[in-house]
Amino acid sequence: SFSNYGESEDNGNKILAKVTKKANDEGIDTVEHLLTADALRDMKFIINQAHADLVVIHALGSDDKRFVSFEENEVSQNQIGSVSERLLRTSDVPVVLVR
């Protein structure tokens, strides 16, 4: 990211607060953690620490130029972000991708 760290962290915390409130309003327990380093490593650590039964992650990350497509050399509905793809392939718990 070309933005400064403090600005990115503030934006991330605002998004987390909205998602957490929405989940709590629906009676869903959540664990908030803003990822600031290696996303896959951090997510796996959080999954283990929280004893998560399920992971819900957006199919595309913040960098829409890096993706894995299952249709060679085509942008398709099957397109997912590289971190989402690695988590989907290596997670010990089920992963739900959302768009």
Strand order of the largest sheet: 1-4
- pLDDT < 50 runs, ≥5 residues: none
Report the CATH C-level class of the largest domain.
Alpha Beta
* Class computed from helices, strands and strand pairing: alpha+beta
Describe what you observe in this structure.
The chain has 99 residues and is α+β, with helices and mostly antiparallel strands. It folds into two domains: 1-34; 36-99, 3-Layer(aba) Sandwich (Rossmann fold). 42% of the residues lie in helices and 12% in strands. It is built from three helices and four strands. The protein has helices at 5-25, 39-50, 82-90; strands spanning 55-58, 67-68, 80-81, 95-98. It has a two-stranded parallel ribbon. Strands 2-3 form a two-stranded antiparallel sheet. α2 (39-50) crosses α3. It is globular.
Summarize the structure.
With 99 residues, the protein is α+β, with helices and mostly antiparallel strands. The chain folds into two domains: 1-34; 36-99, Rossmann fold, CATH 3.40.50. The protein contains three helices and four strands; from the N terminus they run ααβββαβ.
